[in-house]
Amino acid sequence: MDKTSPEYWDKFWETNELPKEINVKKRSVNGYLYSEFDAFFRKHIEADSQKSILELGCGNSVWLPYFYKNFKLNITGLDYSVMGCRRSEYILKAFNTPGKILLGDLFSPPPELVERFDYVVSFGVIEHFLDTIEVLKAHSRYLTNDGKIIVSVPNMHGFPGWYQKVMNREVFDTHVPIDRPYLREALKKAGFKNIDVRYVLPAAVSAQIEGEKNDSYIQFKKTLTLALSRMTKILWAIEIYTGIRFPRSKMFSPAILAYAEK
């Protein structure tokens, strides 16, 4: 069911840099993706120090400190990668954030985590599993009776998916391509209601280029990706400084965000 493995992610996190803290108060082109996510979260999440949030697949994530500092939520993270958990623990400490990071399989929740959380979130997790409905049902097990779920997946359709496939087919093949209608229907079949699913950003160019195989064109691919990324950020700058909004679409948007209620 899982198109990756704990070993895959242990190796992945060993070779990736630690992320910087999210700062949504500073308006900038480089932080525009976070601003889009932040606007979505503020529509659906209530700031309340009595409420709790669980991030599934939290390895190396900066979202837990964000939720603590912006919504006052009690935070917990769960991941099946040892290296991912270590990274997350380091990030909490570095960003002065109280919280718990637990090593475990999201399909086998410890009894104390079942039906405990007001919010369950995951970013770039569900698309690595063949059965999207079942992995969403697994998310639901951690929620209270009136809990809310938020998930994000990369858009592996249109140009973003094609570009990742060209840059590194091995990485593309670890994903199940998910579009907006598919995710909405999967959430519905998993038992969720009041569903809100939308594409994020008008366009973006990014790809995970490094792979296990030697690639003689890797430097060219990195240079090209950087150049194209800078070009798309012109659209972001226009939106930030003029207020003009370009369409979000399956063809060009880099990600999908979804909210639903149990």
Structure description:
This protein has a seven-stranded mixed beta sheet, with helices on both faces. With 262 residues, it is of the alpha/beta class. The chain has one domain: Vaccinia Virus protein VP39 (Rossmann fold), CATH 3.40.50.150. The radius of gyration is 18 Å and the shape is globular. α1 crosses α4. β4, α5 and β5 form a beta-alpha-beta unit.
Protein topology:
Blueprint: H1 6-14, H2 32-44, E1 52-56, H3 63-71, E2 74-79, H4 82-94, E3 100-103, E4 117-123, H5 132-140, E5 143-154, H6 158-167, H7 169-172, H8 180-189, E6 193-200, H9 218-242, E7 255-261
Parallel strand pairs: 1-2, 1-4, 2-3, 4-5
Antiparallel strand pairs: 5-7, 6-7
Helix pairs in contact: 1-4
The CATH architecture: 3-Layer(aba) Sandwich
Q: What amount of the residues lies in strands?
A: 15-25%
Number of strands: 7
Give the uncertain stretches in residue-range form.
none
Characteristics of this structure?
single chain; Rossmann fold; 7-stranded mixed sheet; 9 helices
Provide a brief overview of the structure.
It contains nine helices and seven strands; from the N terminus they run H-H-E-H-E-H-E-E-H-E-H-H-H-E-H-E. With 262 residues, it is α/β, with parallel strands linked by helices.
